[in-house]
Amino acid sequence: MALNEFNNINREWLEGNTLKKIKEHMVLHKGFMAIIDKTAQRINKDKVKSLEIGCSTAIDSYLLAEKNKNIEAHCIDISPESIKTVKRIGKHFRLGVSADVMDAERMDFKDGFFDIVFSQGVIEHFRNPDKVMGEQKRVLKKGGFLVIDVPQKYTFYTLIKHRQIRKGTWPWGWETEYSKRQLVRLGKRHGLRLEKVYAYGYDGYMGFLRHPFKKVAKRNIYKGSKVLFALCKALYGTIGWIWDALWGFVERNFGVYLMMSIVAVFRK
To answer: Whole-model pTM?
Structure first.
């Protein structure tokens, strides 16, 4: 994606209700933040230095620092408008995050400076990710964690995305996606040890399939009969509970092939 496109996106983000957008971001990134929190809490230090690559708004860094008081949060983005957004958002969190305009392929940080480095929706925009992977490894301390979140390959999102890319209507520039195997290989190619692979979230089509009975149970069907409505709601609720249990099993065992995003946690 061209730099001016990044700048335009961040200018648009600053328009409107910032607090509302922060709350929407928190809902969409709930799964990713749970993984980041869990990983950061494994680092037993009085002060933990974190780095977010391609931070955009840096809300994830703010949330991480807000929840974990020992975090010294840093973030970088190639877009100057992004860094302006980061500083404006900081007023809502009332804490500091160090934000710099910087190229993720040529970072100014010293070797082994950070305890945890993470990115969400960034690596897939590099046609050749080896340089940015090498830089992340370089600035990571020995024993530190690298957390990478990318689009999962086998989804409807992938089909829609590539169709729009061919038409020239995709708003996020060039973008690819990864299977679990491809992401694990990328980390191992750079000498990183895989800790775990997670998956979270669904696109619109799979999202409905995941929670169809809950949606139906909330609708006011059979308005004319309170008894019939209560019975139907209870029935849909019971079926929904069974459906959730089945999907829980599927997610635990096959989520990395079904869900929208996959997250790999590596260790140096």
So the answer is: 0.85
